[in-house]
Fold this sequence. Notes:
The protein is an alpha/beta fold. The chain is 32% helix and 14% strand.
Amino acid sequence: MNPIDTEFNRREFLKKTGVALGGMAMGAGSSMSAMAGINNGILGGAHHLPKAKRVIYLMQSGAPSQQELFDYKPMLEEKHGEELPDEIRGTQRLTGMSSEQESFPLAASQYKFKQHGESGAWVSELLPNIASISDELCIIRSMTTDAINHDPAMTILQTGFMLAGRPSFGSWVSYGLGSDNNNLPNFVVMTSRGSGRPAGQPLYSRLWGSAFLPSLHQGVQLRAGSDAVLYLSNPDGIDAPRRRRTLDRIVKMNQEQYDRTRDPEILSRIAQYEMSYRMQDTIPEATDLSDEPDHVFDLYGEDARKPGTYAANCLMARRLAERDVKFIQLYHIGWDQHDNMMDDIPGQCKDVDRATMGLITDLKQRGLLEDTLVIWGGEFGRTSYCQGKLTKEKYGRDHHSRCFSLFMAGGGVKSGTTYGQTDDYGYNIVDSSGAPMTADKSKFQPGLVHIHDLQATLMHLLGIDHTNLNYKYQGRRFRLTDVHGHVVEDLMA
C-alpha cells in the first residue's frame, strides 16, 4: 500500500476519512463519521475472502518446552542421561547459559503422554483439558525461528524483525483491515503472570506498538481492576457534555494545525480522542464480568473470577471477540524453565490449561470459533539436553530455536491435525523421509514453518495478501513478513 507521506497519499487518506473531517469541531456526529472512515483500514477491504474475522493470540512468553507438552519423544526415555550426539547438534550456536557446558546429557520428559481424540494427537498429562479438545486443534511441531534469546525472538514473532522499531502484528492487521466496531479499539492487549517463573522475562509495550504506522493502530492495554484503561475516566467535576465540548474545541485546534502542517499523525490524534470518548461507555460494559453466569466461570476455572489472571483474560477475550474487536492479544509470563522443570512447569500448565480449553469451547458453543482464529504458543522451544547438571530430582532446558510447537484453532485452520515432525531426539525438524531440514527463506519447504511463514498464513486467513500490505518509511517499503514468508496451505481447512 502507498504510505501517507506525500501530497497524493494525503488526498487518498482524506478521501478514506471522509470529507466531513474538516467539520469535526461542529459536533460529535461529524467526528464519529470521520472516525468511521479512518477505521475502514487502508485496504478498504480484504484482498480475498477471509476465513477469519478476528484473532485471539495467546502468547506464552518465555518459551514452553515442546518435549513436555506436544512433541512426544520415546527416544529420550531410552537414552536419558546419554550425551547428545555431535552430529545431531552440529554447529548450532548455543546461548551463554550452556555454551560452556562440557557435557550435554539428554533429558527425558518426566511426564506421560498419550494420544487423544479421533486425531490421535499426542498431548502431555500436564494439559488434560487442552487434550480433551485435541480434535479442534491444528498442532504445528515444526516451527522454527532465527533468534535464540528471548527479546529478539519475541520481537521477530510479534513484528517480523529481531530489532525493535517495527509495527506489531496486531497493528498491521488494524492498519490494513480497520475495525468492525468503531466503539472499541481494533487491537487490545492483556498481560498476566504465571506461577512457573512469575518474575521471568519482562514484556515491553513496543511488542504491541505501531512503530512508524499511525499511532491509532497501536495496541490498547486493558488492566485488571476498576480502571481497565488508564486516564479514560473523566476527572471529578467533568461530566459528559462538558467533555464533549472540550473535545470539540481540541479537534478544531488540531484540524487547524493539520491544515498548516499536513502531518497525518494529527488525524490519528483526532481519531484517538474520539475513540477514547466513546470508550468511556463501551469499555466499562465490555470488561464487567458480573453478568457472566456461574457455569461460564466453571468452564474457564475459578481463576476467571480473579482480575488479571490468565483465566480472567481469556474470558475477557471472548467478550471482546463477541464485540468484534479485530485483534486480541494475551501475554502470559512464566515459561522459562532453565533448571527446575519439575517444580515450575506443572503450575504454569495449570494456569493456562483449563482456561484455554474453556475459551475455545466457549467460542465454539457461541458460534464464534468458525471465524475466530485462536493461536497458542511461545517464541521458541527448549533443548533436548539438560542445561546444567542432570539429577534424579532436577533438570531444565535451555533455549532452542531450531524447532518448537504451537497450536491453532478455529478461523479456517484444519482441525484435528498435527503438522510437521522433528527427529527422534526432538532437536531438528525432519522431512517425511527423516532427513534434517533447515530454514531456506527463498522457497517454501513442506513440513517446516518459519516465523514468517506463520505470519503469512495468519494474514492469508484474515483475507490479506501479506506481500501487498506494506508501508513506505525512510525510503523503503516495509511489511510484517519483511521480504520472506510463504502461506502454508496444508494448515488451512
